[in-house]
Design brief:
Strand order of the largest sheet: 2-1-11-10-7-8
Number of helices: 2
Largest sheet: 6 strands, antiparallel
Low-confidence stretches: 107-120
Distance between the termini: 40 Å
Radius of gyration: 23 Å
Shape: elongated
Mean pLDDT: 83
């Protein structure tokens, strides 16, 4: 089976290696439910995918925001992959290559044969399944956690990061002053089953709905969070 090697474009550092198997797809994107996860804001949640069609493989862009490139050429339709092709997504390279134990399929670049294969019932079903899968993902779009300031700040903060830090350290996502506040006093982590507030350090411990958080607690809609002079409300927005 061919391998897809993920590398960082700038220094060519190898970040992972994935097997492109016959009969299944490799999805590529920023969200954790993808087979190849690329944590970069230039990468869409579900950016592209690689499908097996017979003995060959296709890469398809899933209507991504910044596009998918093969050998520096933007693809607007499913593209047949050849040995050594470089898929470029954001700041990353994905090198598609057959292993030394196997030979690439014959006539892999014959345009007439490519057209014939793309007209088959198998390919039409694959496109329909891809569109249905994408629509299902959009329908199941997860709500985003938001912190709305009640006092000690203004506006709202979207909890899009995996870990949001609260403390008096200048590098914190939410900076709060006070002698009893820790450098990192608390964190809010984004997990598959929701958002969690955790106490980290300092004499002042965070409170949720008036209850002191000693370790970690899951946040629910309209929970009130207090820490020193800071007071916020947790919201889930579609």
């Amino acid at each position: 089976m061919p391998l897809v090697t993920l590398r960082f474009k700038k220094d060519q550092k190898k970040l992972g290696e994935f097997v492109a198997e016959k009969g299944r797809s490799l999805t590529i994107g920023r969200l954790e439910d993808n087979d190849i996860v690329i944590e970069n804001l230039a990468v869409s949640g579900h950016h592209a995918k690689i499908d097996a069609v017979g003995d060959k493989f296709l890469v398809t862009d899933l209507n991504s925001k910044n596009g998918t490139f093969v050998n520096e050429t933007l693809i607007t339709q499913p593209h047949w992959l050849r040995h050594g092709d470089v898929i470029i997504i954001g700041k990353h390279y994905l090198v598609f290559a057959y292993t030394s134990e196997e030979d690439p399929p014959e006539d892999a670049h014959n345009p007439m044969q490519d057209t014939m294969i793309m007209d088959t019932e198998q390919f039409r079903k694959m496109r329909e399944n891809s569109q249905a899968s994408q629509q299902a993902r959009q329908a199941k779009k997860e709500p985003v956690g938001v912190l709305s300031f009640l006092s000690g700040g203004e506006g709202e903060i979207d909890l899009t990061k995996k870990l949001t830090k609260i403390g008096k350290n200048a590098s914190s996502d939410i900076v709060i002053s006070g002698l009893t506040i820790g450098q990192t006093a608390a964190t809010i982590s984004k997990r598959p089953n929701g958002y969690y507030l955790s106490y980290v350090g300092g004499f002042s411990k965070p409170k949720v709905n008036g209850e002191t958080v000693k370790e970690s607690v899951q946040l629910n809609q309209f929970d009130t969070i207090e820490l020193g002079s800071l007071k916020m409300q947790f919201l889930l927005k579609e």
